[in-house]
# Entry
Amino acid sequence: MSQTGSNKDVSHASLPGEPAAHGSAVDTTDNPFADPGLPPHQHRIQDIDERAAKRSERTIALLFVVSMLATVGFIASYVVLPIDKLVYIWPFGHVSALNFALGLTLGVALFCIGAGAVHWARTLMSDVEVADERHPIEATPEVRSKVMEDFRQGAAESGFGRRKLIRNTMFGAMAMVPLSGVVLLRDLGPLPGDKLRHTLWGKGKLLVNQNTNQPLRPEDIPVGSLTFAKPEGLEDDAHDFQTEIAKAALMIVRLQPEDIKDKQELEWSHDGIVAYSRICTHVGCPVTLYEQNTHHVLCPCHQSTFDLSDGARVIFGPAGHALPQLRIGVNQDGYLEALGDFSEPVGPSFWERG
# Structure
């Protein structure tokens, strides 16, 4: 609209304090702070051409479908790709194929949902600007009624109920994306089952000196000595060495048979040689200190003390129970061997300890 002459020559003027109508002009000669009103509404092509609206609808649905396919790709990558496989990706260089595939597919899935929602809002939902007066924070019944009416109107203008293709594909994409998180729960590790109850020790396993890697004979262990042992077949360079030795670490002490007070300890020993778990039953520290005269062993972490002449019971400190004993014997070749596993789970107590 052009003006010739006075600035007061306008198509419409609002009263002071009255909101301006959409697309109207306001006289600002007397009041430079008057509401200038809203610019004329420009209709989008989707508002006047149903074919353009259908194209936008198909584009949005395509984005949601791509999101669903990307989620399927995420799950497939997690299942199929090995964790140690490397691939060359320019410009990143050699990267983990699994990590790259997971990041790419999850990123595409989330991006397509966001892009579809933004495209829906910009092309198909109503974009008419509405001026409204400020109101007190406390909502009156009339305001609440208006809000609900606006909500219903917005839902109707969004086409959510009418455009079923968009609605259904959006539901599909949003329902499938959380599956990515569910699949990742597998990385918490496999269920422990009864792994905490068992070690590598078993009937016939030789007792191997942890320092020399040689099988032990009874004559290798003098009275009053402390020897650390591991099960036969567990090599120091094995990938699972730390995991297995944390359960199977063994200490061997030779006592005079008459000094052994516990009946089961005596039955499970050989000529005064007793074998106990080296893992403290408090928090799992290695028990390393031995007092020859008292037959006590001490954990250096929190000073839990165990009496090896009396079933390795706790006589001091925070440990909750005795060290588990390993029953031993001698095979036909004269080497010390285990006659089974430990009497109970080694290390600190856990919820299934029996």
In short: The longest strand covers residues 336-342. The CA atoms of residues 134 and 328 lie 86 Å apart. The two ends are 90 Å apart (CA to CA). The helical segments are 45-48, 50-80, 97-123, 141-158, 164-184, 241-248, 263-267.
